């Protein structure tokens, strides 16, 4: 049995899609995006009047009284709609819930378009975390991924304007934009002292969500399926590609939901119903009164081959629903602890093409565990190499990184060069003679002026090659570990 589709439709992770950024996580940084917290579409009609008015608090008249006072006495003209929307946003802000927000008609249009079509933006999921506008995950092959954005990166400013005090919707409005235009984000990354700037050219975000291949090693053919988000056609793609892998006689399967911020809940359900047998639920939902409902498949038995799931800190919401269900079914989960988004939101129409997106449910694992704020812990923890977590090299031609200097920037550069195979002898931030020799070797290999100093050109090329290496999947320690452990 599946969840009522007239109710819970989406499991997105956080706010509004940045337009929106380009995913289903918090807010998407893309032109035609929606939202990212578990979302329901409600049939509730709040446009009329009736007996419900009798249940309103006695002092609610203060709102209309304040409206009248402003209209009658304020020194400047104020738009009626802006006052009403301000009152709504003020009430919602008192809930102190980053996943609850007001969606005006334009935001709702973008949300609806995002479900059905491609969009333009930078391709990253954004939400509000601890008061900061935060990247949940860059999407595969997106401008955000190519620029090196990472999960948990905090956005401090957009095009030089601070986002402090802005809600996710307001921040999204600044980040989103048309294909071909640039946006400059100031980023604060965990473990790095100083913020840095990233210039990203907006583009059309690809709609493909499922990628598969066969890994042949040690006499075993393992199917690897990556799901980048849970969108309208994801289950069709997944089912077709899984069937193709099984027709080729795979011995095992790895499901990769790293960097997947979530998406349509019914798609996550469809996928789980292919793996979780009917003797255990694949999901539970809990309402505000603590009432729980379980949802199970009609599947008679599990697959006849071993399975593991890859997760990381960018795996959120619907991805976590899949991961924790497979974990409690007994399969290995490999990688880093996931994001931790365990609530469901409901989009309630207000009668004028606007809606309120409000947290109304918790989702729980098959065993009733609520992972909100904690995430799904892997059964096999595996980190990537250090260069996966490096940051852009911030240098200028006037102040290059040079011999005998010590700084965090030098340490970051050393990690990158080491990741590219150049022996720096150390990664502690001291620009040693060995580091200078490694820089010279890199410059020689790439037809640059051999100076031993890291200026803008050298630093930019080091950064570009590291990003390309990460995107290629080379030295993917998490996937390697998953393949190693699958048949143990």
Keywords:
single chain; eight-stranded mixed beta sheet; eight-stranded antiparallel beta sheet; 28% helix; flat; 12 helices; Muramoyl-pentapeptide Carboxypeptidase, domain 1; 2-enoyl-CoA Hydratase, Chain A, domain 1; alpha+beta; 488 residues
In short:
The chain is an alpha+beta fold and 488 residues long. It has helices at 61-73, 80-93, 105-116, 143-146, 168-175, 234-247, 265-272, 318-328, 408-419, 433-445, 456-472, 477-486; strands at residues 8-11, 27-30, 38-41, 101-103, 119-129, 132-138, 154-158, 161-162, 182-188, 196-201, 203-205, 210-217, 220-227, 252-256, 263-264, 283-286, 292-295, 307-311, 332-335, 343-349, 355-364, 380-381.
What is the CATH top level name of the domain at 210-341 and 365-381? Alpha Beta
What percentage of the residues does DSSP assign to strands (E)?
15-25%
Looking at CATH, which topology of the domain at 210-341 and 365-381 would you report? 2-enoyl-CoA Hydratase, Chain A, domain 1
In the predicted model, the low-confidence regions spanning at least 5 consecutive residues are 4-52
CATH homologous superfamily name of the domain at 210-341 and 365-381? 2-enoyl-CoA Hydratase, Chain A, domain 1
What is the CA–CA distance across the termini? 34 Å
Q: What integer is the average pLDDT?
A: 85
How many β-strand stretches?
22
CATH architecture classification of the domain at 210-341 and 365-381: Alpha-Beta Complex
Helical run tally: 12
Structural class: alpha+beta
Q: Approximately how much helix is present in the residues?
A: 25-40%
Q: Major sheet, described briefly?
A: 8 strands, mixed
Rg is 24 Å
Shape: flat
């Amino acid at each position: 049995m599946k969840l009522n589709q007239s109710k819970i439709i989406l499991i997105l992770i956080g706010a509004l899609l940045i337009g929106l950024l380009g995913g289903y996580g918090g807010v998407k940084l893309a032109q035609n995006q929606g939202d990212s917290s578990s979302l329901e579409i409600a049939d509730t009609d709040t446009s009329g009047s009736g007996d419900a008015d009798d249940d309103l608090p006695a002092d609610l008249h203060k709102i209309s009284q304040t409206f009248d006072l402003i209209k009658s006495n304020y020194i400047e003209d104020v738009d009626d709609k802006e006052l009403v929307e301000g009152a709504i946003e003020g009430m919602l802000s008192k809930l102190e819930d980053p996943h609850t927000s007001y969606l005006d008609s334009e935001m709702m249009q973008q949300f609806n378009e995002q479900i059905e079509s491609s969009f333009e933006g930078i391709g990253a999921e954004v939400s509000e975390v601890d008061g900061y506008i935060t990247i949940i995950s860059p999407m595969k092959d997106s401008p955000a991924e190519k620029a090196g954005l990472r999960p948990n990166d905090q956005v401090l400013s957009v095009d030089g304007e601070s986002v402090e005090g802005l809600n996710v919707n307001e921040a999204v409005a600044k980040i989103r934009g048309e294909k071909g235009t640039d946006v400059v984000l100031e980023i604060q990354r965990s473990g790095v002292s100083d913020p840095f700037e990233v210039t990203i050219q907006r583009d059309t975000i690809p709609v493909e969500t499922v990628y598969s291949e066969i890994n042949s090693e040690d006499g075993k053919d393992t199917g690897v399926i990556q799901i980048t988000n849970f969108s309208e056609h994801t289950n069709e793609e997944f089912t077709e590609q899984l069937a193709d892998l099984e027709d080729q006689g795979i011995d095992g399967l790895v499901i990769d939901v790293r960097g997947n911020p979530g998406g349509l809940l019914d798609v996550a359900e469809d996928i789980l119903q292919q793996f979780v047998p009917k003797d255990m639920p694949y999901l539970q939902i809990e309402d505000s009164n603590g009432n729980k409902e379980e949802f199970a498949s009609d599947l008679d038995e599990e697959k006849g081959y071993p399975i593991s799931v890859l997760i990381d800190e960018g795996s959120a919401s619907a991805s976590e629903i899949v991961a924790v269900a497979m974990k409690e079914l007994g399969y290995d989960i490999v990688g880093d602890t996931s994001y931790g988004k365990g609530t469901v939101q409901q989009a309630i129409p207000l009668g004028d093409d606007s809606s309120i997106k409000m947290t109304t449910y918790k989702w729980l694992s098959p065993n009733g565990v609520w992972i909100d704020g904690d995430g799904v812990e892997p059964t096999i923890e595996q980190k990537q190499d250090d260069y996966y977590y490096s940051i852009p090299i911030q240098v200028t031609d006037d102040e290059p990184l040079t011999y005998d200097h010590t700084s965090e920037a030098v340490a970051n550069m050393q990690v990158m060069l080491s990741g590219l195979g150049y022996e720096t002898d150390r990664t502690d931030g001291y620009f040693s003679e060995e580091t200078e020799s490694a820089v010279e070797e890199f410059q020689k290999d790439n037809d640059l002026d051999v100076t031993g100093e890291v200026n803008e050109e050298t630093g930019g090329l080091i950064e570009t090659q590291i990003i390309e290496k990460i995107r290629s999947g080379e030295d993917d320690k998490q996937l390697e570990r998953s393949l190693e452990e699958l048949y143990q």
